[in-house]
Design goal:
Blueprint (H helix, E strand, L loop, with lengths): L1 H11 L11 E3 L13 E3 L7 H17 L6 H9 L12 H9 L2 H20 L1 H11 L10 H16 L5 H15 L4 H23 L1
Helix pairs in contact: 1-2, 2-3, 2-5, 2-7, 3-5, 5-7, 6-7, 7-8, 7-9, 8-9
Length: 210
């Protein structure tokens, strides 16, 4: 549990104030499992929303479970929801410190609510979502797809399938943006292709039914 808290803490403490907070990127080893040194690097292009924070926390939680033999879903959720938003790391600059001090509990509440809904839905339907990924990635061997890409796609598929209130185009765009920070530069095209394929087929099915 301590490892998950360490990985998520610096991620979450940067976007407390409002939707204008920008997410810091992790500068770590190629895997999130054992970050040797976490430095903050702000993504200047992407503005944060509660749902963006929730998606990235889901990604961290799922990644952690992949390498844990004894951590439960309940423990992952509790670790994330019980994070101390008031602490400030030494890496933060003065502007971010001021934003965090002013705090925005509504932002936190929205992010954590969506995080828990999405995390549980992904976990409960993970096998089905993985099968959908395999179906859409016909020209790819599954062992060639990185774990991070798989998880990002699974999260996106879950939102497209089970969260009707979330605009599909927003889901696909968010998946691409998240992949830019946590995966390779080339991943976005593949991720978009899989999600767009599912969206196109599901839209056609809905039209046929109506």
């Amino acid at each position: 549990m301590h490892c998950l808290k360490k990985k998520i803490f610096l991620l979450i403490e940067q976007q407390i104030k409002s939707q204008k907070i920008e997410l810091p990127q992790f500068v770590t080893s190629t895997r999130l499992k054992r970050p040797e040194k976490v430095l903050l690097k702000t993504d200047k292009k992407t503005k944060f929303t509660p749902r963006r924070l929730a998606r990235e926390l889901v990604l961290h939680g799922l990644y952690s479970l992949e390498f844990s033999n004894n951590q439960t879903v309940t423990e992952v959720i509790a670790d994330i929801k019980n994070l101390n938003f008031g602490n400030i790391s030494q890496e933060l600059d003065e502007e971010l410190e001021n934003l965090i001090e002013r705090n925005d509990t509504n932002f936190q509440k929205k992010a954590m609510t969506y995080f828990e809904q999405l995390f549980i839905k992904v976990f409960n339907n993970k096998r089905e979502l993985e099968d959908e990924l395999k179906k859409r990635a016909k020209n790819w061997k599954m062992d060639r797809i990185t774990l991070m890409d798989k998880l990002i796609i699974i999260i996106g598929l879950c939102e497209l399938k089970y969260f009707d209130s979330v605009p599909p185009l927003a889901v696909m765009n968010e998946a691409i943006e998240i992949s830019k920070k946590f995966s390779s530069p080339k991943s976005g095209k593949f991720i978009n292709g899989v999600l767009n394929s599912y969206y196109a087929d599901s839209s056609q099915t809905a039209e046929n039914i109506s």
